[in-house]
Write a structure and sequence with these properties.
The chain is an alpha/beta fold. The chain has helices at residues 11-22, 34-40, 55-60, 77-89, 102-110, 119-132, 162-166, 205-217, and strands at 3-7, 26-31, 46-49, 68-71, 95-98, 115-117, 136-141, 146-152, 173-179, 182-184, 198-204. It is elongated. The site of adenosine-5'-triphosphate (ATP) has 21 residues, from α1 and β2.
Length: 218
Amino acid sequence: MALFAVIGLGSFGATVATQLISLNHEVIGIDLNKKYVENISDQLTHAVIADATDEHVLDELNVQRCDAVVVAIGEDIEASILCVLHLKNMGVKKIWVKAKSKSHHMILTHLNVEKIIHPEEDMGVRVAQSLSYPMVSRYMALEDDHYIVKIEIHADHHATPLNQLMKHAPEITTLLHKRGSVVQYQVASDLILQEGDILVVEGLLEPLRHLARYFKAL
Ligand code: ATP
């Protein structure tokens, strides 16, 4: 179990905070807005109405003992930066910050925060990817253009042999196949797919794009 602080309890910050709680961590939530704090106070370990640009407030809350601090102040870039500066001065090592604009991102880069988050952009990319590749239900970017992709088999591909799908992208590795609750890690190439099956594959972006086109063309 770890201890986190989430500063700014708008929709993004509140979601991060409650998710961390559901993952069995302790969370201190801080927001200027009384209503936001009251809405969430019974779900968090500790919720405080406070101005996070005031270093004394952060000090009193003992934020430096947190394993990580998420700064989720959006619109008020000045407040976000000031808060990050105080956290840095207090010696907080793991600071993740939500950035609202390019200039905000640039300043945060110079402040050397561990992670800069762009939730709206990230979600926009994911929505566009899902619309473009409906069979891809999840993906994870690895380094060097490699991806792990979860594919759901739809009715169009029911009864298609796996090797018929994969023959146009032999560079792609099938990591696992799941049907109902049964997971297989050694996937037979002549497996006949069924609607609802899950495949998890790994490969470079270009062959994956190629495979996606083949999925659509079937
Ligand atoms: P979201 O999209 O997550 O709802 P947003 O990106 O529009 O939020 P804001 O609403 O500007 O961002 O800020 C998020 C929260 O941060 C708000 O609830 C706001 O009250 C809080 N906040 C802003 N300034 C401070 C501050 N100085 N100290 C603490 N909380 C602050």
